[in-house]
Amino acid sequence: MLGLTSAHKTWMHRLPVGPKLALLALFSVVLFWLDNLWPMLVALVLVAALVASGGAGFARQALRLLQPVWFFVALLAVWHLWLNDPLNGLRIALRLVVAVTAANLVTLTSRLSDMIDLIERLLGRKVALTLGLALRFVPVLGERAAMLSLAWRARSQKRAAWRLVPGLTVGAFDEADHMAEALRARGGLV
Question: Which parts pass through the membrane (predicted)?
Fold first, then answer.
């Protein structure tokens, strides 16, 4: 299981996770209250400057994490062009990119263990453990999907698409079963 903390150390890594998460929450609320494009563009420049302040390697890693978002931005653009409402589509897309980039910034500069400790203090051990396991399994399932896709391409010329779902599902249940056994062996979630 992997963490998402960046190996490119920045000044933001030294900040405690609690204030970073609180600022992210406040920033997100303000961002979604905004209706004018200019303040949203200022928010985009602010987040881009924070990402850039981490150096070139850090910025490249942050941009890579945005790759899945571009599909949704394109989908929003097409949908709002079809609705003949491109300005609203731009607003929504801008909010999405800024919010995800800000969240990625916090994730990249905070250790998962620190986040789990904070959640444990605020919400309790069971919730913290559940959230931590869910966050750690995302990259594991991504790697498993990539391996299944490679195996499929080695055996067939057809696109895998939905055909990977059963294998990925069984693998996820298998991982969950192993994790449950390990938790039971350590005394469970008392």
Answer: 17-34, 40-58, 65-83
Task: Give me 100's structure tokens.
Answer: 């995800």
Q: From the CB of residue 45, how many other CB atoms can be counted at a distance below 10 Å? A: 11
Cα–Cα distance measured from residue 95 to residue 72, given in angstroms and rounded to the nearest whole number: 12
The reported pLDDT for the residue numbered 7 is 82
- Separation between Cα atoms, residue 110 and residue 104, nearest integer Å: 10
- Nearest-angstrom CA–CA distance, 12 and 53: 9
* 135-175 residue pLDDT tens: 777 777 778 888 888 888 888 888 777 777 888 888 888 88
Q: Is 70 exposed, middle or buried (0-12, 13-18, 19+ CB in 10 A)?
A: exposed
CA distances from 69 to 76, 116, 121, 152, 186 (A): 11, 25, 32, 26, 39
Residues 37-64: pLDDT tens digits?
999 999 999 999 999 999 999 999 999 9
- Among 92, 104, 102, 96, CA closest to 37: 92
* Model pLDDT for residues 137-147, shown as the tens digit of each residue: 777 777 888 88
User: Which tokens in the block code for residue 16?
Assistant: 């405690």
